[in-house]
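User: Show me a protein chain along with its predicted structure.
Assistant: Here is one chain, sequence first, then structure tokens.
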Amino acid sequence: MDRQRRMALGLIFGSLFAFGAVAASAVADAADPAFCNDYASEANKAATQAKMLKCGFTGPRWQKNLAGHTAWCLLVDQSLAQSETDVRATDLKDCTCHWYADQTMVQIATNIAKKCGFTGLRWLDDKQAHFDWCDKMDPGFDAMKSEIKIRDKMLKGC
């Protein structure tokens, strides 16, 4: 075998070895399968809630695709997958708090229009205050829905 051919083969095999080492390193740093199953489940829940609240989010982050979220997670470092979860949670919380404040303001307008006379923090005519309560207190979606139901019940009795 001549010298040029040996150099070419050496270059090819060297490149394959380097690619294999990088690939093996990436697999070694990939997220744990159990973590990825939880990651994908949470991503789907967030996508469902975002759609229900009409947040208007788009892109792969907001697709309800369990297999896709799992596959992506298995290819990346766990810290990257966690940062994706954190960004998704921040975006969803902001959307949820806007939704809550909007719903609250509709109920407050009804209280005023029907002259029901309800007062107190629950009936404060200040959208930013209701958003801030949601954002700072982080009451959870169930607590927000409960507040809305309480106001609805009071309005029905007015």
